[in-house]
Amino acid sequence: MTSSLSLQEKPIASIGDSVLQQIRFDIVRGRLQPRQRLRLERLRETYGASVTTLREILNRLVAEGLVVAEGQRGFEVAPVCIAELRELAEMRIMLESHALRRSLSEGSLEWEAGVVSAHHMLQSVEHGLIGGDSGAIETWVRYDWNFHRATVAACDMPALMATHANIFERYLRYHLLALDFRGAAVAKDHERLRDLVIARQTDATLVLLEAHIRAGMEHIIRAGRIPA
Questions:
Q1: Would you say the pTM of this structure is higher than 0.70?
Q2: Rounded to 5 degrees, what are φ and ψ at 77?
Q3: d(CA 149, CA 137)
Q4: What region holds the HTH gntR-type domain (predicted)?
Q5: What pLDDT is attached to residue 141?
Q6: Which DSSP letter does residue 183 get?
Q7: CA gap 177, 34 in Å, rounded
Q8: Domains contained in the chain, CATH given
C-alpha cells in the first residue's frame, strides 16, 4: 500500500504537501509509533524537508490529532488508548450517519454505481482474507475506506466530508495497529450495507452502519494491542 492511504485526497502542490502526506501516512500506518519522539533533525534526514517546513507540518498534524506538541521539548506521535478509540467511533457514527442520510436522499445513479464499484473491490479483498491471505489487511483497510467514502459521497457538504475524513483516518490508525481482520461477519455487513444503500432504505441503513462501527471498535479492543 502506498501513501494513497491518506484520506484527505488533496492534490500535492509542493514538496511540503508531499512530506505532510507521507508523515501522516507513516503515523496512520504505524511506522511512526504512538508516543515516538519526532526529532526535527532526524525527520529532515528521513523526509528531505527543511526544519522550518517540518515544524509547520507537525503543527498541522497537531491540529489533526495525530501529533502532540510537548512545549519546549518538541513533538511526539499522539498516543492511543481505548477511551479515544471509543470517542472516535462515536464521532464517526455521528458524522457518517448524517452524511449517509443526505446521500441516500440526494444521490444520483452515478453515485449508486460508485458505491457498487467500491464494494466490488472491497469484496474481492475480503474474500482473499477469509481464504487466508492475511497479508492483505492493509489493502483491506484502504478499500474499506473507499467503500464507506463512496456511500456518503453524495452528501454535498465539503466541510462535513473533510471532518469525517480526519476522524476516519484516526480511526483507521487503530485498525492498522491491531492488524486484525474481523472475518466473514464484516464482509456480510458490507454486502448488506451496499444493498440497503442502493435500495435507499434509510432507517435500516443507519441502524446497520452504527452496529457495524461498534462491532469493529469492539473487535479492535479485543485484539489486545491498544492500551487502556
A1: yes
A2: -65, 135
A3: 18
A4: 13-80
A5: 87
A6: -
A7: 10
A8: 3-77 (1.10.10.10), 82-222 (1.20.120.530)
**Separation of alpha carbons 124 and 47, rounded Å:** 34
Q: What is the DSSP letter of 200?
A: T
- Predicted pLDDT at 13: 53
Q: Give the number of residues written for the chain.
A: 228
What is the reported pLDDT for 26? 93
Q: Per residue in 6-37, pLDDT tens? A: 554 444 457 788 999 999 999 998 899 999 99
- Enter the C-alpha cell of residue 139: 489493502
In whole angstroms, give the CA distance from residue 124 to residue 215: 21
Q: How far is CA 50 from the centre of its chain?
A: 28
Tally Cβ neighbours within 10 Å of residue 9: 11
Other Cβ atoms closer than 10 A to 78: 19
Residue with cell 454535498: 156
The helix/strand/coil state of 9 is coil
